[in-house]
UniProtKB/TrEMBL annotation, chain A:
<dbReference type="InterPro" id="IPR003568">
    <property type="entry name" value="Cyt_c_biogenesis_CcmF"/>
</dbReference>
<dbReference type="InterPro" id="IPR003567">
    <property type="entry name" value="Cyt_c_biogenesis"/>
</dbReference>
<dbReference type="InterPro" id="IPR032523">
    <property type="entry name" value="CcmF_C"/>
</dbReference>
<feature type="transmembrane region" description="Helical">
    <location>
        <begin position="274"/>
        <end position="293"/>
    </location>
</feature>
<comment type="similarity">
    <text>Belongs to the CcmF/CycK/Ccl1/NrfE/CcsA family.</text>
</comment>
<feature type="transmembrane region" description="Helical">
    <location>
        <begin position="352"/>
        <end position="374"/>
    </location>
</feature>
<feature type="transmembrane region" description="Helical">
    <location>
        <begin position="249"/>
        <end position="265"/>
    </location>
</feature>
<dbReference type="GO" id="GO:0017004">
    <property type="term" value="P:cytochrome complex assembly"/>
</dbReference>
<feature type="transmembrane region" description="Helical">
    <location>
        <begin position="394"/>
        <end position="413"/>
    </location>
</feature>
Automatic annotation (TrEMBL), chain B:
<keyword id="KW-0479">Metal-binding</keyword>
<feature type="signal peptide">
    <location>
        <begin position="1"/>
        <end position="17"/>
    </location>
</feature>
<comment type="function">
    <text>Possible subunit of a heme lyase.</text>
</comment>
<dbReference type="GO" id="GO:0046872">
    <property type="term" value="F:metal ion binding"/>
</dbReference>
<keyword id="KW-0408">Iron</keyword>
<keyword id="KW-0812">Transmembrane</keyword>
<protein>
    <recommendedName>
        <fullName>Cytochrome c-type biogenesis protein</fullName>
    </recommendedName>
</protein>
<keyword id="KW-0472">Membrane</keyword>
<feature type="domain" description="CcmH/CycL/Ccl2/NrfF N-terminal">
    <location>
        <begin position="6"/>
        <end position="148"/>
    </location>
</feature>
Length: 654, 150
């Protein structure tokens, strides 16, 4: 019964979305206030109905209702509750339902918090957002309906892929989707602005919080996924340049670019048409990501069970929205006149450099991801493009970006002098070079990656701090002024520093990783660097829905015991799949990562030990970036702008 | 039931990536083998190198690679030997030859293009007259003169 209610609510939501697309658009065109205002209750109703449908599906998973085909395929009665809940979105149909739930959530938020938008712009934004919803409701209802029943329900389900039964991965998809779909909001704003034929500073200010929110969610989602890969896949890789990972990384890069170019639109009324184009492309890459994951076109470790019919449907959705938006862009872009005048050396230019580097980096990832397909289609060559290519082709852009970041962010608007921007940074530069040099001296006979990473990390972090201090002026009361700086300035410091920390972490891990693979008998020891790994015992035990082989390992450093580790190997009989649970001794400087392998014919167990320097910096950096975004989002000026429309007197911009 | 599960598990446990019995005693050769195997694709897996993969084909390739190195092949010869048998597809890092130079050149070319476009835009912005710098109309000029003369 609840399932049928959910199914019905989803169909109703589809109907409401169609209404919400058509009526406000006509209303905005004809200037009929009543028709425009209809968008708001519709957005609320659409969200409520979709939430009902999603709740019904989740209920079916929680109660293990095996009359539902989807539950049978992806759940099992013995599965822990957390994974029954996360199982709702751990499959194609459920994840698409989560996707439209978030589309409608963002639409509803724009309706609730968009009080300060001009009425016609708001109506158009909500209509475009609903149009995206319409496409995906149709996709769900016609090709991937989650509410299909089975005539003869089986006794139990087939279990969720055991790799996905993990807390890190339970929350990775929702965050990622919040990010992907958050970009649909900036897309709606861009298309609505093109229909209106007007992009001004106010538009830049409205669109920034949405972009920022999407970028924060993408950052968290990607970091969770990467962290999961690190501890779950059993050999400590954190990024594989897999098509699906790239699919989430490309929107992230473009969202980061968009964030920065929207600042130029808001503060200086320039770069308008480029910003609009970026907003369209960023969502386009979200759609490409969806297409890659669900069409099966590119082989990937993450692929859902996919079939070509769905791929074609998503391709059509993508062609419609991208084609439509780009045609609109071509027609209207010339009307978007830039107002601000600035010299070639200025913050505007620096932000443009940031955009060029991020967009080209995104292009490199894109071409690398699609190349196997292109090469086969046009050159009849079957080849692979893997991590070595991406590491070589992508990294230079990030190094360049890191190099110019502190200089660019120190520049004033309109007209800057390179000398003046560099002056406060010279000590930072010397210190960063010293640090990089130190790293070079300590390591022997390894690549330049480590030292360069250390230099960049120090340069960006200290550069961001010096930049913030520079805003407090001179003389007395600097501390007081520091505490009064707008949150956005603190957000900038935190996010930029986070990027530096992540860069240093990635370089450190990739340059100085040590691994060791050996067999040890029970009671035996293995020496790795200054560490000793002692295998005390191996036991087999039964978990809720798996059997486990657990190693009891003691870790010594220079003879002193520092940790007890329990690496585990699990086997999930229902899904017929093994997983590894690495045991990790976390530390700010290094992780000791121990994995237990098979019992050897000659006796003893395979023990893999990895010393991974600075790994946690990667995720600390990501957390800092997300925190920086949040600080910026909480800036008073966004709220002042939100309240401005309600007052009669305008609030002067800062 | 539990004993059965454990027995079952022992039957089907897969082999994990590089095994101790594959490792060469010569550490220099082993280092080279590990580096090379990170750039070779496991053909039956989805996007994994043979160094990471636990498929049996990957194990065969790892052993084959080590045999070639022990036989005195250079890195290039050993990789060529495998490419000859398994095709270009096995290389995770496509060599910049033939049409592949497009792939390698795409990034730098795009950067040049974007930098050119960006520079053109900047030039136009710095040369554009500021919108509020339109010359004063005669009435405004007269009013200004009036104010300044006071």
């Amino acid at each position: 019964m609840i399932t049928e209610l959910g199914h019905f609510a989803l169909i109703l939501a589809f109907g409401v979305a169609v209404f919400q697309t058509v009526v406000p658009l006509i209303g905005a065109y004809k200037r009929w206030p009543g028709w425009m205002a209809a968008a708001e209750p519709a957005a609320g109703a659409q969200f409520a109905l979709t939430a009902l449908a999603f709740g019904a599906l989740m209920w079916a998973f929680v109660t293990s209702d095996f009359s539902l085909r989807l539950v049978v395929l992806n759940s099992h009665s013995l599965k822990p509750m957390l994974y029954k809940i996360s199982g709702t979105w751990g499959n194609h149909e459920g994840s698409m339902l989560l996707w439209v739930l978030i589309v409608s959530l963002f639409g509803a938020m724009a309706a609730w918090f968009g009080g300060n938008l001009p009425q016609s712009l708001r109506a158009r934004v909500l209509a475009v957002q609903a149009a995206i919803g319409v496409a995906f409701y149709a996709f769900i209802l016609f090709t991937s309906n989650p509410f299909l029943r089975l005539a003869t329900p089986p006794f139990d389900g087939q279990d969720l892929n055991p790799l996905l039964q993990d807390p890190g991965l339970a929350f990775h998809p929702p965050f990622l989707y919040l990010g992907y779909v958050g970009l649909s909001m900036t897309f709606s704003f861009a298309v609505a602005a093109l229909i209106e034929g007007r992009v001004d500073a106010a538009w830049g200010r409205w669109v920034r919080p949405w972009t920022l929110a999407a970028w924060i969610f993408l950052t968290i989602g990607i970091a969770l996924g990467s962290w999961w890969a690190y501890y779950e896949l059993g050999w400590g890789g954190f990024w594989f340049w897999d098509p699906v990972e790239n699919a989430s990384f490309m929107p992230w890069l473009l969202a980061a670019a968009l964030l920065h170019s929207a600042i130029v639109v808001e503060k200086r009324e320039s770069l308008k048409s480029w910003t609009i184009l970026l907003a369209i492309l960023a969502f386009g890459f979200s759609l490409i990501g969806t297409f890659i994951v669900r069409s099966g076109l590119l082989t990937s470790v993450h692929a859902f069970a996919n079939d070509p019919e769905r791929g074609v449907f998503i391709l059509m959705i993508m062609a419609f929205f991208m084609g439509g938006a780009l045609v609109l862009f071509a027609m209207r872009a010339s009307a978007l006149e830039a107002k601000g005048v600035f010299s070639i050396v200025s913050r505007e230019s620096a932000l443009l450099v940031n955009n060029v580097l991020l967009a080209v980096a995104c292009f490199v990832v894109f071409i690398g991801t699609m190349w196997p397909l292109l090469a086969e289609m046009f050159f009849d060559r079957k080849l692979s493009v893997g991590p070595p290519f991406f590491n070589a082709a992508f990294t230079p852009f990030m190094v360049l970006l890191g190099l110019v970041l502190p200089i660019g962010s120190a520049m004033p608007w309109k007209r800057a002098q390179i000398g003046r921007a560099l002056k406060p940074l010279r000590y930072v530069f010397v210190l960063a070079v010293t640090l990089g040099g130190l790293a070079y001296v300590i390591q022997t006979g390894r690549s330049l990656l480590g030292p360069v990473g250390m230099f960049l990390g120090a340069w960006i972090v200290m550069g961001a701090v010096v930049d913030l201090l520079g805003r407090t002026g001179r003389g007395q009361g600097r501390l007081r002024r520091l505490s009064r700086l707008p949150r956005a300035d603190w957000g900038k410091l935190t996010a930029h520093a986070g990027l530096g920390v992540t860069m240093a972490g990635i370089a450190g891990l990739m340059a100085w990783n040590i691994d060791d693979i050996r067999a040890a008998p029970i009671g035996g020891t293995i020496e790795v660097g200054s560490y000793t790994v002692q295998l005390d015992n191996v036991e087999r035990s039964q978990g809720p829905n798996y059997v486990a082989t657990t190693g009891y390992v003691t870790l010594f450093q220079n003879g002193a015991e520092i940790a007890q580790l329990r690496p585990e190997k699990r086997f999930y009989p229902v899904a017929q799949m093994p997983t590894t649970e690495a045991a990790i001794d976390y530390n700010l400087l290094r992780d000791v990562y121990v994995v237990i392998g098979d019992e050897q014919d000659a006796g003893g167990w395979v023990i893999r030990t990895y010393i991974k320097p600075m790994t946690n910096w990667i995720w600390i950096g990501c957390a800092l970036m997300a925190l920086g975004g949040l600080l910026s989002l909480s800036d008073r000026r966004f709220r002042v702008a939100a309240g401005a429309a309600k007052r009669t007197t305008p609030v002067p911009a800062e | 039931m539990r004993a059965l599960l454990i027995a079952w598990m022992l039957l089907v446990t897969p082999a994990w990536a590089v095994q101790p019995d594959e490792i060469l005693s010569d550490t220099v050769l082993e280092e080279r083998a590990r580096d090379l195997s990170k750039g070779l694709r496991c053909l039956v897996c989805r996007n994994e190198s043979i160094d990471e993969s636990n498929a049996s084909l990957a194990r065969d390739l790892r052993i084959l690679l080590r045999e070639r190195l022990v036989a005195g092949d250079s890195d290039q010869e050993a990789v060529d030997f495998i490419v000859e048998r398994y095709g270009e597809y096995v290389l995770l890092n496509p060599p910049a030859s033939g049409s592949t130079w497009l792939l390698w050149g795409a990034g730098p070319l795009m950067l040049l293009l974007a930098a050119g476009l960006g520079y053109g835009y900047l030039r136009s912005r710095s040369a554009a007259p500021a919108p509020d710098q339109t010359p004063l109309s005669p009435e405004e000029q007269a009013r200004l003169d009036d104010i300044l003369k006071r």
